[in-house]
Automatic annotation (TrEMBL):
It is found in: Cell outer membrane. Residues 99-117, 139-149, 207-218, 228-245 have a biased composition (Acidic residues). This is OmpA-like domain-containing protein. InterPro entries: Bact_OuterMem_StrucFunc, OMP_bac, OmpA-like, OmpA-like_sf, Thrombospondin_3-like_rpt, TSP_type-3_rpt. The keyword Repeat does not apply. Residues 67-178, 198-253, 363-384 are annotated as: Disordered. Its main location: membrane. One of its GO terms (biological process) is cell adhesion. GO terms for cellular component: cell outer membrane. Keywords: Cell outer membrane, Membrane, Signal. It comes from Archangium gephyra.
Length: 397
């Protein structure tokens, strides 16, 4: 009888939930007793057992990526090389002047204090000049001086360069202009008649100027009548019969007044053309605007014709004394605007003087933005406030 193979003891000790062979009892033999399977059902060869076992899990790692090179950082550009980079430079192609005044904006400031005196000649480049006709070209502020020594400072003195009385600082009190169209004659109140004591008989009158008019009826006993047929009975010479400002010696029409309109105003004859300069009761008015180059006291080319007509009018109205007033809007510093208006008024006075108007009849005064004609809140109003006016002060001496 063939020998039978002995089996190991069969004892189930593994719960079905964990038993790989729930219908076959585990063989408790010290070999894999926790899988619930009898070992006689498994391959007995260790090599075959190893092949049947699950292979180890291999986790592949991602390949390392090569690091990118750092981004190239370019230095900020500075086209004008003034130390202020172009992104922050308000004047990227014009170098900052590095004078300690607003150097961070990158723009040169030719006039730091905006007093119209360039820093190159300004003795106080960071403090504005006081425009008061006293050392106005040094660029430094001054006290309110009395340049003409009449006891009135600049603010109160309407004639700061001419000594005058205490009312306005001018050498005369304004009087109504006479003998011009549009001027009312002064009211003359007749004095009560007086009884004069009898005078001794006068000696026969002579004729000192030998013009044929006895001195007792000669209005100009020391000046000889010119005998030109014009008012010869008064005994006075009339160098300009028609009172058009052109002496008879040069007047082609000595008995007809020139019409001042920019058309041959120096020949003394009336002609056709638009009259733009008018004498009113209080002022000499120009219908057009006297232009200057922007932000300067230099007259624009268009101003020449207007001022020539103004000069001709003033030469004809020899009895008038005029204040040339410069006015501005309120844009910018008030001190700078007052300085600009003063220089513009002086530029017009210089033009008129060179054109033959007696300079003693003219006063130049800049008021800046202190006397607006319209609101400065609109462009139209500011344009109206930038102007020049010619105020009649009265009769010239």
């Amino acid at each position: 009888m063939a020998a039978q193979t002995s089996r190991p003891t069969e004892t189930t000790t593994v719960a079905d939930a964990l038993d790989r062979c729930p219908f076959e009892p585990e063989t408790i033999d010290g070999h894999r007793d926790d899988d619930g399977c009898p070992e006689y059902l498994l391959p007995s060869t260790p090599a075959l057992v190893q092949m049947l076992e699950a292979p180890p899990r291999v986790v592949l790692s991602e390949p390392e990526r090569a690091a990118l090179p750092p981004a190239l950082v370019l230095p900020p550009s500075d086209a004008d090389r003034d130390g202020v980079i172009d992104d922050e430079d308000r004047c990227p192609v014009t170098a900052e002047d590095k004078d300690g005044f607003e150097d961070e904006d990158g723009c040169p400031e030719a006039d730091n204090d905006e007093d119209l005196v360039a820093d190159a000649t300004d003795q106080c480049p960071d403090v504005a000049e006081t425009p008061n006709a006293f050392k106005d070209d040094d660029g430094c502020p001054d006290e309110d001086p009395d340049a003409d020594g009449d006891g009135l400072g600049f603010e109160a003195d309407r004639c700061p360069l001419e000594p005058g009385d205490k009312t306005d600082g001018c050498p005369r009190e304004p009087k109504p202009a006479l003998a011009l169209p549009g001027f009312a004659l002064p009211l003359v109140v007749a004095a009560a008649p007086t009884v004069e004591a009898p005078q001794p008989a006068a000696a026969p009158a002579g004729d000192l100027d030998e013009d044929g008019q006895s001195d007792d009826v000669d209005s100009c006993p020391m000046s000889k009548e010119d005998g030109d047929g014009f008012e010869d009975e008064d005994g006075c010479p009339e160098p300009d019969n028609d009172s058009d400002g052109i002496p008879d010696s040069k007047d082609k029409c000595p008995y007809e007044a020139e019409v001042i309109n920019g058309v041959k105003d120096d020949d003394g004859c009336p002609d056709k053309g638009e009259v733009i300069v008018h004498v009113t009761e209080n002022a000499v008015v120009i219908d057009k605007v006297v232009q200057f180059k922007p932000a300067s006291a230099t007259l624009a080319p268009s101003a020449s014709s207007l001022l020539k007509q103004l000069a001709a009018t003033l030469k004809a109205a020899r009895a008038l004394s005029v204040e040339i007033q410069g006015h501005t809007d309120d844009v910018g510093r008030a001190t700078a605007n007052i300085t600009l208006s003063q220089k513009r008024a002086e530029a017009i006075k210089t033009f008129l003087t060179k054109a033959g108007v007696d300079g003693s009849r003219l006063v130049a005064k800049g008021y800046g933005p202190t006397r607006p004609r319209a609101s400065n809140k609109t462009a139209k109003g500011r344009e109206q406030n930038r102007r020049v006016e010619f105020l009649i002060l009265g009769e010239a001496k």
